[in-house]
Amino acid sequence: MKTCIKCSEIKEYYLFVKDRNTCKVCKNEYRKEHYKNNYEKLEAYRKEWDKNNSEKVNEYRKKYRKNNSEELKAKSKEHYKNNPEKVKARGKKYRENNPEKIAKHYLIAKGFIKEQITTELIECQLLITKTNILWKTSHN
After folding, report:
1. Which of 12, 19, 96, 122 is the most buried (most CB within 10 A)?
2. Which structural domain range is residue 105 located in?
3. What would the pLDDT profile of 2-13 be if each residue is shown by its tens digit?
4. Number of Cβ within a 10 Å radius of residue 121
5. Whole-structure pTM value
6. How many domains is the chain built from?
7. How do strand 10-11 and strand 2-3 relate by DSSP bridges?
């Protein structure tokens, strides 16, 4: 048995943080409070760490997506079901802000290999897309 220095309760050894005099419950409460009070600082640190360790982060995310693909698909479907307008608005905004990426993706879907796609080809696809949009809006 051991006494916690925060809550002063006497508890079993396994309920304490290893090599510390604070119980796990008190430590968790402290961590939550610390995170809430220092959110901006901790988030900036995390973003900087992610930036400096992008290979590790990308590898972890890739592995996570592979191991949890079914769960992620289900969450995505549920999110879309609960927020269709929000998801559509985000997609529309992305397409407006990244027309080159959309054009490149479309070309890949048509069968082009990434190495074959040039700037001129992307510009042509952008013109085709704009023409199609104009045609659709004028004929509706």
Report:
1. 122
2. 98-140
3. 999 999 999 999
4. 14
5. 0.56
6. 2
7. antiparallel
